[in-house]
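Lab notebook, bench 4. The sequencing result for the construct came back, and we need a structural model before the next group meeting so we can plan mutations. Quick request posted to the team channel:

Model the 3D structure of this chain.
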Amino acid sequence: MPDRSARRIIAAGLLAIAAAVAHAAAVVPAAADGDARRPGRFGIRLLEIPENRLDDPRSYAFIVDHVNPGTTFTRRLEVFSTSSRRQHVSLYPAAARVGDAGFTFAPARTANELTSWITLDRSAVDLPPHGRVPVTATVAVPAAAVKGERYAVIWAEISSASPGPAGNVALVNRVGIRTYLDVGPGGEPPTRFRIGEVTAGRTEDGQPRLVAEVGNTGERAVDLEGEVRLSDGPSALSAGPFRGTRIATLPPGGHGQVAVPLGRDLPAGPWRFRLTLRSGLVTRTATGTITFPTAGERAARTDPSVPVLVAVAVAGLAAMVLLVVNLRRFRRRPLDGEAA
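Done. Here's the predicted structure in token form:
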């Protein structure tokens, strides 16, 4: 088994590879604070992970850990730029939460319990053109901290003045690293989830997709990624793997959906599917047989004019029936002087 220094070198090498291959996973753009007009690309990424999490894919993108109350630990980060000019980047932790809407960021520099435990050795850096600067984050958990999982983001932010009606409009762009920290005595709480019903459908533009109902049955948040393989299709066709384009984050006890878009030219089926979902080291698989609805079937179910047309047709048919009945009654009515 490699010694401690060798394992650190291995971890650093793996992180470098992960940053080069899947850089977007390590740099999390803010949904509300990002702006496509930012002056050159910049980012923040991890430079190390705990030795006991070398096998956990989430730890290469996020700070994921479990510690006892009273623990203090550090993580080395790096802020970098691909811009051809100097950039001033602010650094700070801010609150986040995991709920029905997934992993959500608090606005601006909103604090929570976890952010009060995080200290950065730099509050700002001046990046030279195409430069990079190391940053150390220290997390000091109080001895009196209660059991539970907390969430935060360590942000790198650039603000730039922009002309506006009042001349004081600022464009704010930020990227960050998610932090999932569980605190409690003893070992780490279990991470579990289950796959429920799996259905075949289509997106708004008609692309086939598989949608799985998922429940988090563990005690830690999960970031679910999906992969689908199809087999035994028409003419013995196989297809895939198809990977989900969006990570679904669920809190403990939460429920949600994972959707995996598939190839646009796939025949309707039937197909044999194999859906694999994973969060970190935990993997679950579901199999079954599906047939995708045709585009026409989907339009019939979703077109709001269809129920109206059906109602009009039914009303018209009812009116015709009443007309025929009344005509028959009129013809059979006795004339004056005629026996009934």
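The chain has a mean pLDDT of 80.
Will bring this to the meeting.
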